[in-house]
Task: inverse folding
Protein backbone atom coordinates (compact mmCIF):
# COMPACT_ATOMS: atom_id res chain seq x y z
CA UNK A 1 0.00 0.00 0.00
CA UNK A 2 1.17 3.50 -0.76
CA UNK A 3 1.30 6.61 1.36
CA UNK A 4 -1.82 8.24 2.77
CA UNK A 5 -3.21 11.17 0.76
CA UNK A 6 -5.72 13.64 2.21
CA UNK A 7 -9.22 13.95 0.84
CA UNK A 8 -11.45 16.79 2.05
CA UNK A 9 -9.03 17.30 4.93
CA UNK A 10 -9.17 13.69 6.14
CA UNK A 11 -6.60 10.92 5.90
CA UNK A 12 -7.52 8.17 3.46
CA UNK A 13 -5.57 4.94 3.24
CA UNK A 14 -4.76 4.49 -0.44
CA UNK A 15 -4.82 0.97 -1.82
CA UNK A 16 -2.81 0.17 -4.92
CA UNK A 17 -5.70 -1.58 -6.67
CA UNK A 18 -9.38 -1.92 -5.88
CA UNK A 19 -12.15 -3.80 -7.65
CA UNK A 20 -15.73 -2.53 -7.64
CA UNK A 21 -18.28 -5.34 -7.94
CA UNK A 22 -21.54 -3.71 -9.08
CA UNK A 23 -24.94 -5.38 -9.32
CA UNK A 24 -26.95 -3.51 -11.99
CA UNK A 25 -30.29 -5.04 -10.97
CA UNK A 26 -30.14 -4.19 -7.25
CA UNK A 27 -32.39 -1.55 -5.74
CA UNK A 28 -35.10 0.62 -7.19
CA UNK A 29 -33.04 3.54 -8.54
CA UNK A 30 -31.28 4.17 -11.83
CA UNK A 31 -28.37 1.71 -11.90
CA UNK A 32 -26.44 3.56 -14.60
CA UNK A 33 -26.62 6.84 -12.69
CA UNK A 34 -25.54 5.06 -9.51
CA UNK A 35 -22.57 3.51 -11.27
CA UNK A 36 -21.47 6.84 -12.72
CA UNK A 37 -21.64 8.41 -9.27
CA UNK A 38 -19.46 5.67 -7.80
CA UNK A 39 -17.02 5.95 -10.67
CA UNK A 40 -16.76 9.72 -10.28
CA UNK A 41 -16.04 9.46 -6.55
CA UNK A 42 -13.64 6.52 -6.55
CA UNK A 43 -11.77 6.64 -9.88
CA UNK A 44 -9.86 9.89 -9.15
CA UNK A 45 -8.49 8.37 -5.93
CA UNK A 46 -7.95 4.68 -6.65
CA UNK A 47 -6.71 2.44 -9.45
CA UNK A 48 -10.29 1.24 -9.97
CA UNK A 49 -11.54 -1.69 -12.04
CA UNK A 50 -15.30 -2.22 -12.32
CA UNK A 51 -17.01 -5.58 -12.78
CA UNK A 52 -20.77 -5.98 -13.17
CA UNK A 53 -22.59 -9.09 -11.98
CA UNK A 54 -24.71 -11.04 -14.43
CA UNK A 55 -26.73 -14.28 -14.53
CA UNK A 56 -23.59 -15.94 -15.87
CA UNK A 57 -21.19 -14.55 -13.25
CA UNK A 58 -22.33 -13.63 -9.75
CA UNK A 59 -20.63 -11.59 -7.05
CA UNK A 60 -19.07 -14.63 -5.41
CA UNK A 61 -17.34 -15.66 -8.64
CA UNK A 62 -16.16 -12.12 -9.40
CA UNK A 63 -14.74 -11.62 -5.93
CA UNK A 64 -13.05 -15.03 -6.02
CA UNK A 65 -11.28 -13.85 -9.17
CA UNK A 66 -10.27 -10.63 -7.38
CA UNK A 67 -8.82 -12.69 -4.54
CA UNK A 68 -6.79 -14.76 -7.01
CA UNK A 69 -5.45 -11.56 -8.54
CA UNK A 70 -4.35 -10.26 -5.13
CA UNK A 71 -6.41 -7.06 -5.18
CA UNK A 72 -5.95 -4.74 -2.18
CA UNK A 73 -9.63 -3.87 -1.59
CA UNK A 74 -12.98 -5.15 -2.86
CA UNK A 75 -15.86 -2.65 -2.99
CA UNK A 76 -19.30 -4.23 -3.43
CA UNK A 77 -22.40 -2.28 -4.46
CA UNK A 78 -25.74 -4.08 -4.41
CA UNK A 79 -28.30 -5.62 -2.11
CA UNK A 80 -27.80 -8.03 0.77
CA UNK A 81 -27.65 -11.04 -1.53
CA UNK A 82 -24.81 -9.48 -3.52
CA UNK A 83 -22.95 -8.44 -0.38
CA UNK A 84 -23.33 -11.86 1.24
CA UNK A 85 -22.09 -13.62 -1.90
CA UNK A 86 -19.07 -11.33 -2.04
CA UNK A 87 -18.32 -11.75 1.66
CA UNK A 88 -18.30 -15.53 1.28
CA UNK A 89 -15.33 -15.29 -1.09
CA UNK A 90 -13.46 -12.97 1.31
CA UNK A 91 -13.94 -14.94 4.56
CA UNK A 92 -10.61 -15.95 6.08
CA UNK A 93 -8.63 -13.85 3.57
CA UNK A 94 -6.78 -10.65 4.44
CA UNK A 95 -8.52 -8.60 1.72
CA UNK A 96 -10.92 -5.95 3.11
CA UNK A 97 -14.50 -5.51 1.95
CA UNK A 98 -16.09 -2.07 1.51
CA UNK A 99 -19.88 -1.93 1.15
CA UNK A 100 -21.96 0.54 -0.87
CA UNK A 101 -25.55 -0.64 -0.26
CA UNK A 102 -28.18 -0.36 -2.99
CA UNK A 103 -30.76 -3.01 -2.01
CA UNK A 104 -34.29 -3.18 -0.62
CA UNK A 105 -33.57 -3.91 3.04
CA UNK A 106 -29.79 -3.20 3.23
CA UNK A 107 -29.67 -5.33 6.36
CA UNK A 108 -25.89 -5.86 6.36
CA UNK A 109 -25.20 -2.14 6.07
CA UNK A 110 -27.71 -1.32 8.78
CA UNK A 111 -26.25 -3.91 11.15
CA UNK A 112 -22.76 -2.46 10.71
CA UNK A 113 -23.68 1.23 10.77
CA UNK A 114 -22.73 1.75 7.13
CA UNK A 115 -24.67 4.63 5.52
CA UNK A 116 -27.18 3.78 2.80
CA UNK A 117 -26.76 7.12 1.05
CA UNK A 118 -24.43 6.57 -1.92
CA UNK A 119 -22.39 9.73 -1.37
CA UNK A 120 -21.89 8.94 2.32
CA UNK A 121 -21.05 5.30 1.58
CA UNK A 122 -18.40 6.43 -0.91
CA UNK A 123 -16.98 8.78 1.71
CA UNK A 124 -16.68 5.83 4.09
CA UNK A 125 -14.68 3.92 1.45
CA UNK A 126 -12.31 6.91 1.32
CA UNK A 127 -12.01 7.58 5.04
CA UNK A 128 -13.00 4.39 6.89
CA UNK A 129 -10.72 1.72 8.30
CA UNK A 130 -10.87 -2.04 7.88
CA UNK A 131 -11.94 -3.93 11.02
CA UNK A 132 -12.17 -7.71 11.49
CA UNK A 133 -15.68 -8.95 12.23
CA UNK A 134 -17.11 -12.41 12.78
CA UNK A 135 -18.65 -14.61 10.12
CA UNK A 136 -20.34 -17.99 10.58
CA UNK A 137 -21.34 -21.20 8.86
CA UNK A 138 -24.79 -22.78 8.98
CA UNK A 139 -24.81 -26.43 7.91
CA UNK A 140 -21.56 -25.67 6.12
CA UNK A 141 -23.02 -22.69 4.23
CA UNK A 142 -21.63 -19.16 4.78
CA UNK A 143 -23.59 -16.89 7.11
CA UNK A 144 -23.01 -13.16 7.53
CA UNK A 145 -26.22 -12.06 9.26
CA UNK A 146 -28.50 -14.69 10.75
CA UNK A 147 -30.38 -17.96 10.48
CA UNK A 148 -34.08 -17.91 11.33
CA UNK A 149 -36.33 -20.85 12.16
CA UNK A 150 -40.12 -20.67 12.24
CA UNK A 151 -41.67 -17.22 12.05
CA UNK A 152 -38.64 -15.54 10.41
CA UNK A 153 -38.52 -18.13 7.63
CA UNK A 154 -42.25 -17.85 7.04
CA UNK A 155 -42.04 -14.08 6.66
CA UNK A 156 -39.23 -14.29 4.11
CA UNK A 157 -41.06 -16.95 2.13
CA UNK A 158 -44.25 -14.87 2.00
CA UNK A 159 -42.48 -11.64 0.95
CA UNK A 160 -42.32 -12.20 -2.82
CA UNK A 161 -39.78 -10.54 -5.11
CA UNK A 162 -42.50 -8.48 -6.79
CA UNK A 163 -43.87 -7.32 -3.43
CA UNK A 164 -40.38 -6.26 -2.29
CA UNK A 165 -39.87 -4.35 -5.53
CA UNK A 166 -43.18 -2.50 -5.04
CA UNK A 167 -43.28 -2.06 -1.27
CA UNK A 168 -39.70 -2.36 -0.03
CA UNK A 169 -39.40 -3.20 3.69
CA UNK A 170 -43.20 -2.86 4.04
CA UNK A 171 -43.50 -6.19 2.19
CA UNK A 172 -41.83 -7.91 5.16
CA UNK A 173 -44.13 -6.18 7.64
CA UNK A 174 -47.26 -7.32 5.80
CA UNK A 175 -45.89 -10.84 5.51
CA UNK A 176 -45.16 -10.81 9.25
CA UNK A 177 -48.76 -9.94 10.12
CA UNK A 178 -50.00 -12.82 7.96
CA UNK A 179 -47.56 -15.23 9.59
CA UNK A 180 -48.59 -14.19 13.10
CA UNK A 181 -52.22 -15.02 12.33
CA UNK A 182 -51.27 -18.55 11.27
CA UNK A 183 -48.69 -19.17 13.97
CA UNK A 184 -48.07 -22.80 14.99
CA UNK A 185 -45.57 -23.53 17.79
CA UNK A 186 -43.09 -26.39 17.46
CA UNK A 187 -40.81 -28.40 19.75
CA UNK A 188 -37.19 -27.22 19.87
CA UNK A 189 -34.04 -28.88 21.19
CA UNK A 190 -31.13 -26.46 21.28
CA UNK A 191 -27.58 -27.50 22.20
CA UNK A 192 -25.00 -24.79 22.96
CA UNK A 193 -21.43 -24.90 24.21
CA UNK A 194 -22.52 -25.77 27.76
CA UNK A 195 -26.22 -26.68 27.89
CA UNK A 196 -29.16 -28.35 26.18
CA UNK A 197 -32.53 -26.54 26.09
CA UNK A 198 -35.93 -28.04 25.30
CA UNK A 199 -38.97 -25.82 24.75
CA UNK A 200 -42.03 -25.19 22.59
CA UNK A 201 -41.43 -22.03 20.54
CA UNK A 202 -42.63 -20.19 17.45
CA UNK A 203 -39.28 -18.69 16.42
CA UNK A 204 -35.57 -19.24 17.03
CA UNK A 205 -33.03 -16.85 15.53
CA UNK A 206 -29.27 -17.35 15.51
CA UNK A 207 -27.51 -14.07 14.73
CA UNK A 208 -23.93 -13.25 13.91
CA UNK A 209 -25.14 -9.68 13.50
CA UNK A 210 -28.55 -8.21 12.77
CA UNK A 211 -30.12 -4.86 11.87
CA UNK A 212 -32.93 -3.42 14.05
CA UNK A 213 -35.44 -4.47 11.37
CA UNK A 214 -34.70 -8.15 12.10
CA UNK A 215 -36.80 -7.93 15.23
CA UNK A 216 -36.86 -11.67 15.96
CA UNK A 217 -33.11 -11.48 16.65
CA UNK A 218 -33.43 -8.61 19.13
CA UNK A 219 -33.60 -10.39 22.49
CA UNK A 220 -30.25 -9.13 23.81
CA UNK A 221 -29.44 -5.47 24.34
CA UNK A 222 -27.01 -5.54 21.44
CA UNK A 223 -25.62 -7.94 18.86
CA UNK A 224 -21.90 -7.33 18.51
CA UNK A 225 -20.33 -8.37 15.22
CA UNK A 226 -16.81 -8.98 16.52
CA UNK A 227 -17.21 -10.69 19.90
CA UNK A 228 -16.68 -14.28 18.73
CA UNK A 229 -20.20 -15.36 19.74
CA UNK A 230 -23.55 -16.12 18.14
CA UNK A 231 -26.61 -14.46 19.71
CA UNK A 232 -29.63 -16.76 19.98
CA UNK A 233 -33.13 -15.39 20.60
CA UNK A 234 -36.00 -17.75 21.46
CA UNK A 235 -39.60 -16.56 21.13
CA UNK A 236 -42.14 -18.74 22.94
CA UNK A 237 -45.39 -16.76 23.45
CA UNK A 238 -48.89 -18.03 24.21
CA UNK A 239 -51.32 -17.56 21.31
CA UNK A 240 -51.73 -14.82 18.73
CA UNK A 241 -52.00 -12.04 21.31
CA UNK A 242 -48.84 -13.17 23.06
CA UNK A 243 -46.99 -13.39 19.74
CA UNK A 244 -48.09 -9.89 18.80
CA UNK A 245 -46.98 -8.54 22.19
CA UNK A 246 -43.66 -10.38 21.94
CA UNK A 247 -43.06 -8.90 18.49
CA UNK A 248 -43.72 -5.42 19.84
CA UNK A 249 -41.35 -6.03 22.77
CA UNK A 250 -38.60 -7.15 20.39
CA UNK A 251 -39.22 -4.06 18.26
CA UNK A 252 -38.93 -1.93 21.40
CA UNK A 253 -35.69 -3.71 22.28
CA UNK A 254 -34.29 -3.03 18.80
CA UNK A 255 -35.16 0.67 18.97
CA UNK A 256 -34.04 1.27 22.56
CA UNK A 257 -30.94 -0.92 22.72
CA UNK A 258 -32.30 -2.53 25.90
CA UNK A 259 -32.66 -6.28 26.35
CA UNK A 260 -36.17 -7.74 25.88
CA UNK A 261 -37.95 -8.21 29.21
CA UNK A 262 -41.28 -9.85 28.37
CA UNK A 263 -42.52 -13.31 29.27
CA UNK A 264 -41.98 -15.72 26.40
CA UNK A 265 -38.69 -14.19 25.18
CA UNK A 266 -35.25 -15.52 26.09
CA UNK A 267 -31.75 -15.12 24.74
CA UNK A 268 -28.27 -16.52 25.18
CA UNK A 269 -24.97 -16.63 23.34
CA UNK A 270 -22.68 -19.43 22.25
CA UNK A 271 -19.75 -20.05 19.93
CA UNK A 272 -21.71 -22.83 18.24
CA UNK A 273 -25.26 -24.19 18.39
CA UNK A 274 -27.18 -27.23 17.13
CA UNK A 275 -30.96 -26.91 16.72
CA UNK A 276 -33.47 -29.66 16.01
CA UNK A 277 -37.25 -29.24 15.81
CA UNK A 278 -40.32 -31.43 15.78
CA UNK A 279 -41.79 -31.22 13.21
CA UNK A 280 -39.07 -30.03 10.82
CA UNK A 281 -39.14 -26.26 10.21
CA UNK A 282 -38.03 -24.14 7.28
CA UNK A 283 -34.81 -22.16 7.68
CA UNK A 284 -33.96 -18.74 6.25
CA UNK A 285 -30.25 -17.96 5.96
CA UNK A 286 -29.21 -14.35 5.34
CA UNK A 287 -32.57 -13.58 3.75
CA UNK A 288 -32.74 -16.67 1.50
CA UNK A 289 -34.61 -19.92 2.07
CA UNK A 290 -32.09 -22.64 3.00
CA UNK A 291 -33.84 -25.94 3.60
CA UNK A 292 -35.15 -27.30 6.89
CA UNK A 293 -34.00 -28.11 10.41
CA UNK A 294 -31.87 -29.53 11.94
CA UNK A 295 -29.11 -26.95 11.66
CA UNK A 296 -25.65 -26.46 13.13
CA UNK A 297 -24.22 -22.94 13.24
CA UNK A 298 -20.57 -22.25 14.06
CA UNK A 299 -19.04 -18.79 14.61
CA UNK A 300 -15.86 -17.90 12.71
CA UNK A 301 -14.30 -15.22 14.93
CA UNK A 302 -12.97 -12.13 13.13
CA UNK A 303 -12.86 -13.97 9.81
CA UNK A 304 -13.92 -11.05 7.60
CA UNK A 305 -12.33 -7.59 7.24
CA UNK A 306 -14.85 -4.81 6.55
CA UNK A 307 -14.36 -1.07 6.10
CA UNK A 308 -16.42 0.47 8.91
CA UNK A 309 -17.09 3.71 10.73
CA UNK A 310 -16.02 3.92 14.37
CA UNK A 311 -17.91 1.42 16.54
CA UNK A 312 -18.37 0.70 20.22
CA UNK A 313 -18.47 -2.84 21.58
CA UNK A 314 -21.25 -3.28 24.14
CA UNK A 315 -21.58 -5.86 26.93
CA UNK A 316 -23.44 -9.10 26.36
CA UNK A 317 -25.95 -10.90 28.56
CA UNK A 318 -27.96 -14.11 28.84
CA UNK A 319 -31.56 -14.30 30.09
CA UNK A 320 -33.69 -17.45 29.88
CA UNK A 321 -35.85 -16.78 32.95
CA UNK A 322 -38.93 -15.64 31.00
CA UNK A 323 -39.28 -18.71 28.80
CA UNK A 324 -42.23 -20.90 29.84
CA UNK A 325 -41.81 -24.62 30.52
CA UNK A 326 -38.13 -24.52 29.60
CA UNK A 327 -35.96 -27.56 30.27
CA UNK A 328 -32.23 -26.96 30.68
CA UNK A 329 -29.72 -29.82 30.95
CA UNK A 330 -25.91 -29.73 31.05
CA UNK A 331 -24.25 -30.55 27.74
CA UNK A 332 -23.60 -34.28 27.52
Result:
Amino acid sequence: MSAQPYIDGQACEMYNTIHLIFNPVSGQGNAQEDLELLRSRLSPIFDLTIYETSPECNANELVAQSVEQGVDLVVVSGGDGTINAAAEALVETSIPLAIIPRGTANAVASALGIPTNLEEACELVLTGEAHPIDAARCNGMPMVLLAGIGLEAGVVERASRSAKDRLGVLAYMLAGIQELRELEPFEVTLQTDDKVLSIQACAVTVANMAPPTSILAQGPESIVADDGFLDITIVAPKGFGGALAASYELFRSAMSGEAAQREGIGFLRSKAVKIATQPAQQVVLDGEMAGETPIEVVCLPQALNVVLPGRETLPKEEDLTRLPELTVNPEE
The chain has a mean pLDDT of 82.
